[in-house]
Write a structure and sequence with these properties.
Oligomer: single chain
Largest sheet: none
Shape: globular
Radius of gyration: 18 Å
Strand content: under 5%
Helix content: 55-70%
Order of helices and strands: HHHHHHHH
Length: about 200
């Protein structure tokens, strides 16, 4: 599946410049991105949350989707980075409208997959899964009946990338950041002439 993944370093660049494309995103996707950014700013860790928005079937579909977006290669993929738990926590904190749109998009993907292939997304073959995602990620896809799925996949990609690169695995393996450059407080300038 690695050939279907995105270049992780390029994904990080995209993530850091995400604000430039925000005007083209649906409002509910932008809202989820804002909640995700708040989790980053607050130093969220997956183990800190309780409860779940996802049913087991939804969890399975999101796990498969996230791993297709960032598959395991010579470094960990979205599964080992616990991206599903991250997305679940973002949805738990998101306004109900954005959460429901995401879950509605996930349902749409399952229904479309069943319609085309007779199986839910998680149960479909890898080739069938990629076929669905190729349609949803095509810039030329302006089919009204696909809009829910296209918007959902925009949100899914964004949350997967953010969840991955803010996870311990993503920071250590991909960004070579062991946390040594993080400050727990703002020390300010240490020049004696600038101290009050």
């Amino acid at each position: 599946m690695a050939q279907y993944g995105i270049n992780r370093r390029e994904a990080l660049k995209t993530l850091t410049t995400a604000g430039m494309g925000a005007a083209t995103l649906p409002l509910w996707v932008t809202t989820l991105n804002e909640v995700a950014q708040a989790h980053v700013d607050e130093g969220y860790t997956q183990s800190a949350t309780g409860g779940s928005v996802f049913t087991q079937a939804q969890h399975n579909s999101v796990a498969v989707l996230s791993e297709l977006i960032l598959p395991e290669t010579d470094t960990a993929g979205a599964g080992r980075a616990r991206v599903v738990e991250y997305i679940d926590a973002v949805l738990m904190d998101a306004p109900s409208l954005a959460r429901n749109r995401f879950l509605g998009g996930l349902k749409w993907v399952d229904e479309r997959c069943e319609e085309l292939f007779g199986a839910t997304f998680a149960a479909a073959s890898p080739k069938q899964q990629v076929a669905i995602l190729t349609v949803l990620s095509s810039p030329e896809n302006d089919t009204p009946s696909d809009r829910i799925g296209v918007e959902f996949f925009q949100a899914m990609k964004s949350l997967t990338v953010t969840g991955y690169y803010t996870s311990r695995v993503g920071m250590l393996q991909e960004l070579d950041d062991n946390g040594a450059v993080m400050f727990t407080d703002k020390p300010g300038c240490d020049h004696p002439e600038h101290k009050a």
